[in-house]
């Protein structure tokens, strides 16, 4: 078996030369673990691929459908535990989400394979039991994380195509939350209420102080919003940028006193509300993004 490794997911390819592949672990009837020539663990799925198979037996490559490789050994082992208990079809959907997110430029971690596979399984189970959960953050997620939300909608569509079960837009928002968590790197510790509260507050300060209305379709607004979602996560995760651009910071302040006066309002709010002091680097990035928006408004 041959495969291409692309951003953590392995795409199987066919070669004329046949290579014998050994099974090192059977996860369930439709999923096994093997090791490639470089000693990396691969999760291989396919109908009946693990049926009556044992460790050390040859893999029937004709049954192999999808092959997955995660760079982190710990992530790979955790995913194997998930696959043991859950249908591999949900892993397939999760892998499509990861692939789509990365193709659209989102830097999601491999942990998304595990969390999303498990989540989709639970969501489908709830649907079949007529249990509908309302996502109270749906509007904020759709507004502040449009890319992730659109991928969530696609995932819901893929689930419906596969199972003929429409989980709805609330579930699309839940899937988007998993994507965002994989971007921010804080797993289940991401507090979306606090993050969206801070994003809303910063936008409101800029809107009122500079007496402007945002063009939400503009590139400068999209960039500012992208910065704010990671900025807010850093505030709550105590991983604020360290000072490294003091010289350019001084120059830009001198050249943009009016813009910086608005940045000071944001700094004062965050210090008072969250007891967090922003570094020079954080202030500089806010200055640059707000300046872009104001320049665009003046044009």
Automatic annotation (TrEMBL):
Keyword annotations: Repeat
PRD domain boundaries: 85-189, 190-299
Alphabetical list of InterPro entries matching this protein: BglG_antiterminators, CAT_RNA-bd_dom, CAT_RNA-bd_dom_sf, PRD, PRD_sf
Any single GO BP term: regulation of DNA-templated transcription
GO MF annotation terms: RNA binding
SUPFAM superfamilies: PTS-regulatory domain, PRD, SacY-like RNA-binding domain
Domain of life the protein comes from: Bacteria
PROSITE patterns registered for this protein in UniProt: PRD_2
Coiled coil regions in record: none
PANTHER family: CRYPTIC BETA-GLUCOSIDE BGL OPERON ANTITERMINATOR (PTHR30185)
Protein's recorded name: Transcription antiterminator LicT
Organism: Mediterraneibacter butyricigenes
